[in-house]
Each structure stands twice: as C-alpha cells, then as structure tokens.
Amino acid sequence: MLIPVAPQWETDVQGLKYANPETVEEACTLLRDHGEDAAILSGGQSLLPMLRQRVGSYDKVIDINGLPDLEYVRETDGEIRIGCLSRHVDVASSSVVEEHCPILADVAAEIGDVQVRNRGTFCGAVAHADPSGDPPVVATLLDATIVARNADEKRTLSGSSFYHGFYETDLSKDELVTEVRFPVLSAGEGAGFEKYEPTEGAYPVATVGAYLSLADDGRIENATLVTGALEAGPTPMDDAAEVLEDREPTDDVLTEAAEQLGEDTMPVDDFEGSAAFKTNISKKLAKDALQTALDRAENER
Amino acid sequence: MSTETKPSERVTVETTLNGTEVEQTVPAGTLLSAFLRNHEYLTGTHRGCETAKCGACTVLVDGDPVKSCNMLAAQVDGATVTTVEGLADGEDLHPVQQAFWDCHGSQCGYCTPGFVTNVVALLEDNPDPSVEEIRSHLTGNICRCTGYTKIIESVQEAAARMDGDGK
C-alpha cells in the first residue's frame, strides 16, 4: 500500500529497548542489571513525555504491566493497600477508599483527565515524585508506607520522609515499588486536599493537604499540613500545623493556621503566577482543606 | 508476544484492532499513535500536540479511552484496540458519529476522532450524562473551533438516540 508516512524519527523514541518481565523477581533482576539507564513503565503518563523529550538518561524501559496480582485496592490490617498496577481510576472509584480514606479518592479523581486516569498508576505517581504531583503530597501527609523491592530484599519506606526535592526520593535505581499503604482513618480523624490548577487537567500550581485528629473533648489533638507544587515537592508546614494543636477547631483557628501556612511557604515567581499570588492562593486552599478535614473528623465521631 | 527477558530493540505486537487480529514487529520505541497510523495505515487517529494534552489521538484500549501518543505500541500486545475507524457498522455511522454530523459537533474535524472515541466510552459507562459530566469527561480533549457548545449538544443528542442501550 502506497501511503505517505511520517519519517520514523518523528514518531518514535529512537533506540529504545523494551522488556516485559512476567514476575516481580524477573523485573527486579532486570532493574539490578540495567537500573542505571532503565525506567519502570507502569502507567507511563509521565514517563512517555520524558522519554520523548529525552529528559533523563533512559534508553530502556521495563514494562511491569504484565506482573501478576499487583492490581488491587484493599483494606488489610488497618491499612489501605494499593498495588502498583492500580490506576487512578481504580483508586477514585474504590469503595474501600471512599469508606476509610476518602482523601485518596479526592486526589485520584482530579489527576489529569480521564485518559490519563485510565492509564496512570497511583503508586507510580508516588514513586515518580513530580514536584507538582498530588499523590506525593498525600503520601507525605498521611505518612504512607512505601513497599519497595530489589533483587535481594524487600523494604518499607516512610512516606513522611520519602521526598528530597525535585524527583528525588529514598528509592534506589534498582528498586521497584510494589505497593503503597495508607492508614485507615478512624473516628475523630479526617483529611482534606485542595488544589489550584490554571485549567482543568493541567498540573497544579498550588496544592495543600490537611490532616486533623480530634480528642474526646473536641479539641484538635494532632494536625499535619503539607503543600505541593509550591516548592520542590511535598513540603510539611509544621509551624502552621502547630497553630492548630490542642485548640478548639473554630473557624478563626483554622484561618489562623491557613494564614501561617501562606506566610511560611516559599513559592517562586514564574509564568503561572507571582509568588504573592501563590501565597494568597495557598492560604485559601489550606483553609478549605482544613475545613474538609474537620468536617470528616467530626462526622466520623 | 513472548516475554523479553532482555531489553530488546524490536517488539512483536499482537492485538485485536477494530475486530481484526493483527501482528507486527516494530521498533520498541514505536508509539501507539505511530503504530496505528504508520504501520496499520489507520490515519483516523490524529496526532495533535504530541505531548498528551490535546486528546486528538484518543483511542479505546480494552474499552478505556487513552491517548495513543502517550503509550508504546508494545503496551497493547494482547489487548483490544478500537480506533475511530472501528466505530461505524459498515456504511452506518456509529450513533455518536451521526450525532456529531447532525449537530455540527465538528468544524475543521481535526479533534473529532478523539472526541468521538472518548464519547463512545462515556456513553457506555453513563448513558445519560449531565452537561457537567460531559464537560468533565471531555477535559482531556481540546477543540479550537467549536467552543464546545455543539460538541456538548452532539453528546446529548447521541445519548438520547442511544436511549441507554449503548447502541
């Protein structure tokens, strides 16, 4: 058939090598042998653009979509366990998540667009550590447990100390994240997430996650606030959280914490907005996220 | 495709494409959009932004809308792929295509295959979507001509004609 076609160089990721292991062991062996220049392909929604733009030094991909039994969202031992092949759409529509940790559904349902959510994986987004990514914020906020494997061993990493700036995490290049675990939020606990995106489906310019737990007398026992997209990844805002601790969760107290968060954040001016704009929007997001966290904590009581 | 235990520069892709079994060996870096257009000559799938933002290249993989510029062809090995060419029944357009035609849901037409495939998936999940649900579902598809109004009307018309039976 004589149909003019675009030249290969225009469409292909030239020279890319591809492997599709069938077991986790095989995948880990490949990572051990090729980890320095191999990328793990799960959903691929962030990876493919990077490969095409030659960002990073990958010339191999290890496609893990054929690994068995890693697509699940379930509750086990007081934790919500998300397998590394579960897509955002699976997390967004999970009844377990809705019941025990609805903030995960809030996050997953608003990532990108429906095409992206059908492919992109939640664990992949946690591991990828995009500074504007939403799953890293919630992994930090709720101190998720990240289960990683290499050819020799399995280890668990703490979500609250997992991120170290732009695309940097505690993971080694030979490790595969097989599961991420989030705590089941019990009575008196609640979490909320808010983001500002310039257009729907775009990467957010500012995000805030808030977690609250209430004591029996209704006062705030513990609070955590984490921002995303404003700095080089998930950023715990401890001083703002401290404002809340051991106080009545009144509107004024939530506002005070949100203002503190805005004062403490250190965004930069860029094409998406001035630092002053981002500071202001982060205050509003923090207030809304705190309100959601409080409503959920009170309703669960 | 047999399992590649070593990273390989060429991959064999076996897929059910618009109801037909196809098998091709292509460079591993071949994108699904390039596979469809350059290797299978199905040029109804349009390449727009090439950065996974515009949705013109949307196809259905196992029934789910995905952007074919943002997947490797190797990833559809063993899967079922439906492109805009696979929607019509012979000479009869799919009700979504017919509704886009009748309601002027397309102007220049470049984005239309992506919209149509995405809408087919929407109406399968949700036979009677609200305007808000339609808009939300279509955020990943960009149209620079219509202003979307006619597209929304097309979706509503298609939903009414399909009357909830998915056909």
UniProtKB/TrEMBL annotation, chain A:
Q: Which UniProt keywords apply?
A: FAD, Flavoprotein, Oxidoreductase
Boundaries of every FAD-binding PCMH-type domain copy: 11-187
Q: Which Pfam families did the record assign? A: CO_deh_flav_C, FAD_binding_5
Q: Name one GO molecular function term.
A: oxidoreductase activity
Question: What is the protein's given name?
Answer: Xanthine dehydrogenase family protein subunit M
Q: What is the species listed in this Swiss-Prot or TrEMBL entry?
A: Natrarchaeobius chitinivorans
From TrEMBL, chain B:
The cross-references to PROSITE patterns, in alphabetical order and at most eight, read: 2FE2S_FER_1, 2FE2S_FER_2
- Please give the Gene Ontology molecular function terms for this protein: 2 iron, 2 sulfur cluster binding; metal ion binding; oxidoreductase activity
Q: Sorted alphabetically, which keywords does the UniProt record give?
A: 2Fe-2S, Iron, Iron-sulfur, Metal-binding, Oxidoreductase
Tell me which Pfam families the record gives: Fer2, Fer2_2
Instruction: State the superkingdom.
Output: Archaea
Q: Using the record's annotation, list all stretches that form the 2Fe-2S ferredoxin-type domain.
A: 9-87
Record's keyword annotation contains Methyltransferase:
no
Q: InterPro entries, from UniProt?
A: 2Fe-2S-bd, 2Fe-2S-bd_dom_sf, 2Fe-2S_ferredoxin-like_sf, 2Fe-2S_ferredoxin-type, 2Fe2S_fd_BS, Beta-grasp_dom_sf, Diverse_Oxidoreductases
Q: List all membrane-crossing ranges.
A: none
What name goes with this protein?
(2Fe-2S)-binding protein
UniProt organism field: Natrarchaeobius chitinivorans
